[in-house]
Write a structure and sequence with these properties.
376 residues, alpha/beta, eight-stranded parallel beta barrel, three-stranded antiparallel sheet, 15 helices, 20% strand
């Protein structure tokens, strides 16, 4: 399913074949939490933005509109109109973020809906059942997302629980994929590495879950407030023990420079709400750095967001017009800037792949790592 095509240092160029199409890696997965990109961008728009994978969230879709409803519509592909690969997050991060509304037990987590307060239970089996109803290409295992930092002993116990839950996820997915009415009987399962910022726990946990021979492996529990240097150190420590022939996914990361640094350390897949969230607030990414379109200096600026970009927004609109839309409270402002930011992220990964193909990634990395996060 995953072919390693080329390496430059630890950086990897690959192809990940799925039941819903091939993904050229490294790749950025566009976040459509509730089945849509926030900022009035549809699944059909994604094809024009170089998107390869759409990411949806199990927790949110389970609460609204309900995974059984999505199943009755033929799954997320039919429901949203996106026909490429879809990854569903297990809901673990959202459940564990409800610190005052949930109780963790060995069987799973009891929690209250953030929408209406109703009592809900989710464990490994329930998460797999919901994701099977959604019919996603890739299902993420249900894991415990700890606070960072947490005491060493608690993190060690949490890692052990996450392994037990992962084995239950695999067993339940095998059962579900064998049922006659399963929407996607080829649904894949990714395990998630945890361990906080403790190198030894991270490595031991990765070694243990690697033995399960899953379809892919993610690094979770990072980019949650720890210094970037800690995140990079953990990636480097874990990468050595990740299967070479499986895709590697760094969850919830990040800035363009975070992505560059993680590719440099051997990561294949990324997701983050940053391009959409920032776009909705007039912060746009360019090849020269980050612009805030609300700044007065753009009031009479005829140039596009980025003169080196050929996205639908940059081909048609000026910085002055976009600033006017934001100042006027027009929804179109958010849509156009979210489209630009997603196009930028997907183009960044496209150029990273091209640099790896040409044996020029190190030069690309050194050129852009000090520029892309600069405020201009």
């Amino acid at each position: 399913m995953y072919q390693l095509l080329k390496k430059e240092g630890a950086a990897r160029r690959g192809q990940f074949d799925t039941p819903h199409g091939s993904v050229q890696t490294p790749a950025f997965m566009n976040v459509a939490t509730a089945g849509a990109i926030k900022g009035a961008v549809s699944a059909h728009d994604l094809a024009d933005l170089k998107c390869q994978v759409m990411l949806c969230n199990t927790y949110h879709l389970h609460l609204r509109p309900g995974d059984k409803l999505v199943h009755d519509f033929g799954g997320l592909h039919s429901f949203t109109g996106w026909q490429g690969p879809i990854l569903t997050d297990s809901g673990g991060f959202q459940v564990f973020s409800l610190s005052k509304l949930r109780k963790i037990k060995e069987e799973g987590v009891h929690f209250s809906s953030h929408i209406d307060g109703r009592k809900i239970f989710m464990g490994p089996e329930e998460s797999m059942q919901i994701q099977s109803h959604l019919g996603s290409t890739i299902a993420m295992a249900f894991d415990e997302c700890i606070e960072n930092p947490s005491p060493y002993d608690y993190v060690a116990d949490s890692c052990a629980r996450t392994v037990r839950w992962l084995k239950r996820c695999r067993q339940e997915m095998t059962r579900l994929n064998g049922l006659p009415d399963t929407l996607n009987p080829q649904q894949m399962l990714f395990g998630i590495n945890q361990g906080g910022t403790f190198d030894d726990l991270r490595v031991a946990h990765m070694q243990e879950i690697a033995e399960l021979d899953l379809d892919g492996y993610a690094i979770g529990g990072l980019a949650v407030g720890e210094p970037a240097e800690d995140m990079y150190r953990i990636i480097s420590a874990v990468e050595t023990f990740m299967p070479v022939n499986k895709p590697r996914y760094l969850m919830g990361v990040g800035t363009p420079v975070n992505i560059l640094e993680a590719v440099h350390r051997g990561v294949d897949l990324f997701d983050c709400v940053m391009p959409t969230r920032n776009g909705r607030h007039a912060h746009v990414f360019t090849w020269e750095g980050i612009r805030n379109l609300l700044n007065e200096k753009y009031q009479l600026d005829h140039a596009p967001i980025d003169e080196h970009c050929d996205c639908p927004t940059c081909r048609r609109y000026s910085r002055a017009y976009l600033r006017h839309l934001f100042k006027s409270g027009e929804m179109l402002a958010m849509r156009l800037c979210v489209m630009h930011n997603l196009y930028f992220y997907n183009t960044l990964l496209e150029r990273i792949r091209a640099a790896l193909d040409e044996g020029q990634f190190e030069a690309f990395y050194q050129t852009h790592r000090l520029v892309l996060d600069k405020r201009i």
